[in-house]
Amino acid sequence: MNLEEIEKLISEYEVKGKELEPNRETRNMMMESVSEYSEQFLDAVHNKKAFINDFANDGSFDNFPFEETPTSTNKVINFLKDNVDNAGINPASGGHIGYIPGGGIYSAALGDYLAAVMNRYAGVFYASPGAVRIENQIIDWVGELVGYKKRFGGNLASGGSMANLIAISTARIAKKIKSKDIENCTIYLTKQAHHCVTKALKIIGLHEIQLRYIPMDRKYRMIPEKVEEQLAKDKANGITPFMLVASAGTTDVGAIDPLNELADLAEKYGLWYHIDGAYGGFFLLCDETKDKLKGINRADSVILDPHKGMFLPYGVGIVLVKNVKHLLEANSYDANYMQDTKDYQQEYSPADLSPELSRHFRGLRMWVPMKLHGIAPFRACLSEKIWLTRYFYEKVQALGFEVGPEPDLTVAAFRYVPKSGDANKLNKKLLSIIHNDGRVFISSTTLDGDFWMRIAVLSFRTHKYHLDIILELLEEGIGDRSN
Ligand SMILES: *Cc1c(COP(=O)(O)O)cnc(C)c1O
Q1: Binding site membership of 254 for ligand 1 (Cβ less than 6 Å)
Q2: Do 433 and 446 belong to one domain?
Q3: The CATH number of the domain where 403 resides is what?
Q4: Among 349, 373, 397, which residue terminates a domain?
Q5: Most exposed residue of 33, 44, 322, 469, measured as fewest CB within 10 angstroms of its CB?
Q6: The domain containing residue 249 runs over which residues?
Q7: Is the pTM of this model over 0.85?
Q8: Per-residue pLDDT tens for 109-132?
Q9: How far, in Å, is the centroid of ligand 1 from the Cα of 168?
Q10: For residue 146, what is the domain's CATH number?
Q11: DSSP assignment, residue 248?
Q12: Can you tell me the distance from the alpha carbon of 233 to that of 246, in angstroms, rounded to the nearest whole number?
C-alpha cells in the first residue's frame, strides 16, 4: 500500500471509530435517558418488591445479541429494566434484610460516574498524584477509625473477599511460611468465620495448612481458653501456629469474637492476628457499638467493607495492615517499563499494596459521598439499624418466637417452636410466606442443626415499617398454622 492509500484508510477508520466519542448533543441525549431511568427507579424504589421469585430464562438475552451496529440508549435501558431490574433480590430496596445487605447511595453513583469520565489512573502515584491522595486519604481515615497509629497502610480492594485475600497473603509473607512447611502450620478460627477465608487459603496455595476450628460460646464467639489449649497442644507437637482469624461481626449471627483476649494470645504465641470486620467494622462509627469492637486496633490486619457499612454500591472492600512494610513486601514489584515512576513517588501507590495494577478509581465513590454528606448521616443511619434490630428482637419475642443470641450489631436469628409438630418445617413455611409476599426479603441459616430465620438490617433504606411488615407476616403465619 502506498502512503496515500494508508492515509485514506486511516481517515475511514477514524470516522467510524469516532462513534465512541459522541458530541455534546448526543451525550446529553444519552444522559437524559440514563437520568430519566435513574429517577424513575429512585421514585419507585420504596414501593418495589425486595424479592421477585422468577428465575426463568425467556430467551431475551439470545434475542439481544451484540451486533456491529449501534442500539439506542432507550432500547438498552429498557432491556435492563425488563431483564435485570426485574427478578431476584433487589439490593436497592430497603426491604432487603437478608444475607448482609449492600448499599447504593446516590452520591456514590456520582463518584463512580466522575471516576469513569475522568478515568484517572489510580494505581500509581506518578500517573495521578491526586487520585492516589484521594484513596490514601480514605485509608488514613479508616485506619484512624480502627485505632491504628502511624505506620499502617491499606488498600481499597473490590470487596471483603479480596481484602481478606490480600491480608492473608500478606500474613504468609510476613510470617515467612515456606511451601514445604505448610502442612505443619496452623490457623485458628471458628466455624462462623466467613467462607472467603478458606477460599483465600486455597487461592494462595495454603489449603494444605491445618485448620483449627475453635469451639464457640453460646453467642457463637470464639472461646479464648480453647484457643490457648489448642495452641499449647500444637506447640508441644512441634507445629507452627501461623495465624488467628477473628470476626468483628460474623455474617451468620453478627457475633463479635473477644478481640482483646484473642489479641493477647496472638501476641503471646507470635501469631499473625487478622480480624474480619467486613460486616461489623464500620460500627466503630456508633456510640452504641464502638466499645464492643475494642481490641480491633491490635490486629496485624483488618478488613472492612464500605459496600456494607458505608452503604456504597458493590465493589469496594478495605484491607488495612498495621505495619505497611508487610503489605509492601507482599505486593510491590519492579518493572523496567515503570522506571520513570519511582523518582516522583511521595505516597504509596495502590499498585504496590495490592495484586491489582490498572483498576477502577474506586476511591471516588467513597470520597464524594463522605464530602457531600459529611460523616454524621452515616453514623445516624447505622445507629438507626442497631435500634431497629433491637426493636425487632423484642417484638418477635412478644409474638412467641424463640430468638438467637441478643444482637451485638444488626443481625438477629429467630424461629417459632410449635407445641407439637416439626419446627423446621414450620419455619421454612414462614420464610416462604415472606418470600412469596416479596415486600421484604430475609434469609435463613442453620444453627446447631436447626433451621432459623434471620434478619440483617444494614440497607440505608431499611426503616421501621419494613420490620413491621415482617412481624405482621410472621404473626399471620403462625396464626394460620395447622399443626
Ligand atoms: C460479606 C462478608 C465477607 C465477604 O465480603 P465480600 O465483599 O462479599 O467479598 C467476608 N467476611 C464477612 C464477615 C462478611 O460479612
Answers
A1: no
A2: yes
A3: 3.90.1150.10
A4: 373
A5: 44
A6: 111-373
A7: yes
A8: 999 999 999 999 999 999 999 999
A9: 14
A10: 3.40.640.10
A11: B
A12: 20
